[in-house]
Amino acid sequence: MDDTIITECVAIASGGGRAQGGALYTTDASATVALTTISNCTATTAGADSFGGAMEIYGGSLTLDDSTITACVASTSGDDNAYGGAVYTREASTSLTNTTISDCTALASGGGPSYGGAMMILGGNVMLEGTTITACVASASSVGNDDSAYANGGAVFIQDARVTLAHSIISDCTAVTDGESDANAAYGGALHIRGGTMTLDDTTITACAANATEVGNAYGGAVFAVLANTLLTNTTISDCTALVKGGDAWGGAMAIIGGHVKLNLSTITACVANATGLITDKSCDAHGGAMYVLFTVSDGNPLHGSMSLTHTTISDCASTTTAGSGTAFGGAMEIVGQWTVTLDDVTIAACVAASGAGNAYGEVQGQRSSQCGGRCPAGLLCDKVVSVHPRECPLHSYCPEGSSNAIPCPDGDAVIGRSKPTELSRALAFLYEGLNPHVSWWVLFVLARQLVLTGFLALIEPGTLMQLYLGLIVASLSLVIEMHVSPYVDPGNRLLATVSGTSLVLAMIGLLALKMSAFLPDANVANPTKILVLLVVAALAVVGAAVAVFILESRAILAERRSMAVRRLRLQGIDKAVTLAPSAPGRYHVFLSHAWVTGQDQMRVVKQRLLDMLPTVHVFLDVDDAQRRVGKGAEVLNRSDKFLLFASDGFFGGIHAPSRPCMVELLKAVQLGLEMITVLEVEDKHLPLSPSQLYEQMCKLDQPVLDTNGTPVLDAHGQQFPSMYAKWGTYERLGPRAH
């Protein structure tokens, strides 16, 4: 299939059978799709499972290249399963290259589970390269029944498969449950991995959420993995959330149950595990702002597993509870069970555990089974547990549960790290500023090296070859240790330190050669002049490296300042930056209303530009809201000052049908009397609208509703009823029309 458009195809099983592949279904075949768009396709059934809103691939292979799948749905309204909003593959070899999957949904509305808002992958080998998955949803609802709703993988659900994502982006995806069953659960806002192997390379996951909107639990705002091999390299997870109102939240970015986890050269930032406790009287806990890792099951039996973090940063994450007596555990991580962990060059910064009414346990918090006896010491990594506990514990010790006494850590649990900050440690903080936290001892190492080179060696046979030889040994060993430990966070500092250490070694070698030439004038030793030249070159190399680092960092700072200066909104004539007063808590300066099909990307750019120009502006964009649902926009308008309407195709009509949420939002804004800002689409590739076309679409929607006699229907105020006002039940939602 090449250069094809497939749209509005439907696989319907109205008699209770299975619905499979809204646009394409293959069995043991080789399917190749290139330069193709598949949109608004559906696999829907009322009494069985649905598979693949766009396509189901059973065996064989699937190749998607430079293609787009958008607004496809796999749905079931019975107590059954919805698999893969866009694509369902089983035991197939699947390859997606430069492909976009957006606005797709796996919807189980009758109490059953949903799997993979974009894709469900069951077995086989899968490669996604240069692929974007955005605004996809795995939604499960138990409203109106006693069933338990499970939403699995807002973007992709993977079971017993080998999957690789390279140079890809997953954004604004959600696993969301609704209903009043305590057993409801949302697993993995972006990815749910069960068994098999998942490899992420140079990939970004952002603004995803596992959201239990009523009661139930949420696991992994970005990733939920069970007994799987999960490997992340050069990957960023940001602004992801595990959010619940009446249950527990586990892992703002990742929730890991057993298996093996490796993060290398990766970043987790601004992720949150948030148990609000707003709709229940029970205690609701939050576990691990960035990561929750479990290596034991409820009966205490260990799960086989390991975790390795190297050259990785975790920052600005939070574990929070809002109401009730819930406890917040581990602003960065909570780790439970008997397991093996390796942390090398790991930075944890600005993470917090905060509780509205209950207890809060530390930036990084951990538990272990009987071997360690309970919570580990404040701020320490005891080989197998990372923890911060409110109780003061000395180094190399831990506090067992229910005890006020600290006892030594068992043999083999060598403590790496530092205790709770003291006045002295705060005063000396400048010494290890810029160092990785786990090598704060590097300051002492550098001091010892200087003392040896400039002090102790001066006392050992001054002026002899032995003195120079020992100096060369010390310089060489310190260079090797420095390159192995890599103590500095900033790459520029690492480069400068390496060049300086190398220059010192070369200087020692040159001095040793000069000394030998003086003692052994007849020996075959290099010309002293040449040696001096080499020493000068080594010194100049250090100076050159320092200058290069300074220039590069200065250019980066200046470029950032110029960028911000250009984007900031300024007053004409006086070149003064405009200052916008911050909005009240919970309020927004402007509400961005747009049709998802044709306006989502543009409004994301608009929001970013507004933030660049006015850093204090508070903008509501529905795809950035972790609790978003149909109809929530109209509620948020009560807390908004202005209404920006992006008039693209599909807002009032056109090629795409009018957007119901947009109509409700617009009428609500009119009712509230909000100031309107209208922005027109002008780019040809996005179906631009002229003012006259926009007027025609609005007039068509404003045609009055007629009764059986052809007479316009009037509302309680004697006004005619526009068709759009009646069509979507807007009268009941908003009340009488504004005057």
Verbal overview:
- The chain crosses the membrane at residues 439-460, 466-483, 495-519, 531-552.
- With 739 residues, the chain is α/β, with parallel strands linked by helices.
- The chain folds into 4 domains: 2-358; 377-405, no CATH class; 440-560, no CATH class; 576-728, Rossmann fold (3-Layer(aba) Sandwich).
- Helix content is 22%, strand content 33%.
- It contains 11 helices and 63 strands.
- The strands form 8 sheets. It has a 19-stranded parallel β-sheet that branches. It has an 11-stranded parallel β-sheet with strand order 2-7-12-17-22-27-32-37-42-46-50, with no helix packed on it. Strands 3-8-13-18-23-28-33-38-43-47-51 form an 11-stranded parallel β-sheet, with no helix packed on it.
- Helix 3 packs antiparallel against helix 4.
